[in-house]
Amino acid sequence: MERRDIAQLAICEIKDEAETISCDELRQLYLEKTSEIIYIIKNKQLYGIICLKEVLHKIEYSRQIKINKSFTVLVGHNIVKAYRIFAAKGIKKLPVVNKMGELIGEYSKWDDLLFIKRNQRMLMNGEGSKKILELYDTIYVVKPIENKQSFFGLLIKCLIDSGIKYEILHKEQIVNKILENACFIFVDEDEKIGTECLIEINLSLYDKQKHYLDNKNKLVNMKYHSKLTTYKSLLIKIMQENELYNMKIIKPEFIYGNQVDDLASIFFSELVKKGVKCFCLISENLEGTDKLSEYTEKFNEEIKERLKKYPLSIKEPWPKKNQNPDFYDDLYQNEDYITEKAQKEIFGESAVYDKSSVYGKYFNARNGRRITCFQPEENVGTIYLFGKCMILGTLVEDQYTIASILQKNLIEKEYLYRVENYGDLASPYKLDEKLEEIGQFCKNDIVIYFPTDLSRQFVNIPQISWNQIFERHRIPSTWVTDSFIHENHKANQVVAGDILEIVEPYLSKGTISNHQKVQFNVYDIMKKYIEYKYWNKYFADCNKKFIGQSRGALTMDCDPFDKRHRYLIEQAGQQVDFLILFITENDGYRSCLFPFEQRFKMVVEGTMDLKNIMIVPSGLFDLLGTNFPRNLIKTEQRVYDYSRYYINRFVDYIARPLHITRCFVEKEPEQEIVKMFNEVMKEILPQKEISCIEIPLIPDNNDSNTSQIQKNLRKEEYENAFKMMVETTKQSCMELAGLV
Q1: CA–CA separation, 719 vs 577, rounded Å?
Q2: CA distance between the termini of the chain
Q3: Which GO molecular function, any one, fits this protein according to its record (predicted)?
Q4: Burial track 16-48 (b if 16+ CB lie within 10 A, e otherwise)
């Protein structure tokens, strides 16, 4: 948890009562970016707040922003009370006022991962852990009382391996040691409060007793060092300094949000630098916040009630007239469209996946892109639309997609722009390939991207809020099926109209010859992405430390980590000097029993004794096929196309720079799509001078089956599941199931 004084906050003073405030009045605050929250002050008292991201949405259009007067405050600085409010409300920022209602500061909620990241940075920039540890003969480790037992064991093992003396204390014993200038590591069941808060609470108790004030310098020293010794940050630092860190990655910061959106942000930020205007079309998730308007609440409630009465299914995602007579006429222009064969192909054999063409009465695609109607023969610029179903236009025929309606509106206003529909239900997964296909952009061009994480915010790229468009026009819920983003032709007309209004200031009516080309090298940008996302975090020293050593790669999902996975890692590790183990990070199109963070932790804990492996998140670069939009790829040809795409990308950006010469796969994987992926690997990798080595199953052991483990866990048949697990995974699962 971090406390900021009023001097660090963004403050806007007003004189009169107001419901809204102009973006112009907030422009300077926006440029300074001093806080995520702008505090509105009237007569020295806190009047309201505005989130900076709301300003980012509207700053370029000088619109009014509603002042939020419904928010939670803390009266007086009280860490314990602040933490309780955070826990109860689930909020990110907490303004602090005095008894007069005057703003005096702000608390920020630091969840465990952010707190670790901050402490790690402090360790790097300040005295290293070695220096700190030299001040003490013994490290006092505060034993957890509930759900941190497995990590506690890992910590103790690390201290032993590093030759660091330690003594285990219980919470009640802290008081006797705290004034001895001792160094503590807290492994607490209530970590979210943060070690810093625990220390400050203890200090505040002792500060009240005068005879302790004589020892003030010692207290300050102890407080400073204790800030640097949360168990995870110290553990990471110890491992770095003992050269264990490069062999075994304990990931200090899990990457939330979709990896393909991270890549998109790099691409579009680069375009912005070169003068191409980019926008991010988002759908904010306002559930559970005080920003949910009366309109949105009613809108969502109507959809929920309708879906109870007329549920949608994967086989028939858009209802027919006899399934939903109450809103059919509003939703579709005609029933023929949803029964047309070409439209049905969107949900399985869609032409947009293999760059083929399809011809129909209502749905047409050329070279893998849905056609945009009304395109001009010549153009001064292009508007590119990237996104999933809402951009592709799954509910409407060709002439009523957002792209076609936007194109028609442009022609009517005499703007010679061509709109290109790059919508695809799996659109972002080949974003680099799509951008490479475009080749060159012009400074007149405009790019609009709808992220896979619908609420994703991109830095320095203006946002267009789908929710706000719906609310501004009071679009009825009968114009959508199940959410804001699955809308009919009527809603598309409204959305396209607002998009044109937003981008119009950037449109040119110049001549065709005025095109200014910009250089845009997809390969170079991908290299920057790899450096940012992978090299700088994981591989910076690999090529220096392991010169001349053979290197291999193995990809697993480990859902959960079991005996079979352990065996595969051992076998692969015996065939190379250095093995890089990629744990699949993208849960998007798979039904994972355990989320990535838990799977990653299981693998780390279950392989601590293996010294020649490095464990990293796969991101977009795995060799398992788990990043496939599997529910959309139904044919062997498409599996082959996607496999070839992923394998080539892995080789170009990861394997060659890391000098990986062997990739390991399981000989008889459980999943059919993984078998097909492996066959493509065996075909392609040897052409790239990389061996593809199959590892047979555990001899005389058919008990370890991940699918069976998952079934047993879902049925709460724990004993059967635990038989197939390594001991560390068993302990993790017992904790998660509340069995310990």
Answers
A1: 37
A2: 29
A3: [citrate (pro-3S)-lyase] ligase activity
A4: eeeeebebeebeebeeeebbebbbbbbeeebbb
3-state secondary structure of 612: coil
Name the residue among 723, 719, 724 with its Cα closest to residue 706: 724
Domain ranges for the chain:
2-108, 112-241, 259-309+370-524, 541-736
The yes-or-no answer to whether 2-108 and 541-736 have a common fold is: no
What average pLDDT does the chain have?
72
C-alpha closest to that of 426 among 529, 505, 350, 361: 350
Task: For residue 668, give the DSSP letter.
Answer: S
Do 428 and 258 contact (CB within 8 A), yes or no?
A: yes
Range from 334-348, 532-546, 606-620 carrying the lowest mean pLDDT: 334-348
Which of these CATH numbers, 3.30.930.10, 1.10.10.10, 3.10.580.10, 3.20.20.70, describes 2-108? 3.10.580.10
For residue 68, give the amino acid letter.
Answer: N
Q: Yes or no: say if 248 and 604 are a contact pair by the CB < 8 Å rule.
A: yes
CB 447 within 8 A of CB 279: yes
CA distances, 500 to each of 88, 399, 438 (Å): 42, 17, 22
- Extract the runs of DSSP E, i.e. beta strands, from 159-293: 166-169, 183-186, 277-282
Q: Rounded to whole angstroms, how far apart are CA atoms 153 and 71? A: 42
pLDDT at position 192 over 50: no
Give percent of the chain above pLDDT 70: 59
Judged against a pLDDT cut of 50, whether residue 682 lies above it is answered with yes
Cβ pair 228, 216 in contact under 8 A: no
Residue 668 has pLDDT above 80, yes or no: no
Average pLDDT of the residues in 554-563: 90
Tokens of 403: 């792209």
Output the pTM of the full model: 0.57
CA distance 157 to 385: 53
Which pLDDT tens digit goes with each residue over 432-448?
778 888 888 998 899 99
* Helical packing angle, 489-503 and 402-412, nearest 10°: 50
**CB-based burial, 635-663: b 16+ in 10 Å, e otherwise:** eeebbbbbbebbbebbbbbbbebbebebb
Q: What is the DSSP string of 694-722?
A: EEPPPTT-----HHHHHHHHHTT-HHHHH
pLDDT of residue 115: 37
Calpha distance 418→441 (Å, rounded): 13
Spatial contact of 206 and 176, defined as CB atoms under 8 Å apart:
no
| Residue environment code for 178-197, b if the CB has 16+ CB neighbours within 10 A, otherwise e | beeebbbbbbbebbebbbbb
Query: 514: Cβ–Cβ under 8 A, 6 or more apart, which residues?
Result: 380, 444, 508
Integer Cα distance of 259 and 584 in angstroms: 11
Is the domain defined by 541-736 classed in CATH 1.10.10.10? Answer: no
Task: Report helix, strand or coil for 691.
Answer: strand
Amino acid (one-letter) located at 396:
V
Structural contact between residues 556 and 596, judged by C-beta atoms closer than 8 angstroms = no
Percent above pLDDT 90 for the chain: 15
CA-CA distance, 408 to 406, in Å (whole number)? 5
Give, in order, the Cα–Cα distances in Å from 530 to each of 12, 122, 149, 471, 655.
Answer: 40, 25, 35, 39, 12
SS3 332: coil
Beta-carbon contacts of 631 under 8 Å, excluding residues fewer than 6 positions away, are: 314, 589
Give yes or no for residue 181 having a pLDDT over 60. Answer: no
> Higher pLDDT residue, 315 or 312?
312
259-309+370-524 carries CATH number 3.40.50: yes
Query: Is residue 584 within 8 Å of 618, Cβ to Cβ?
Result: yes
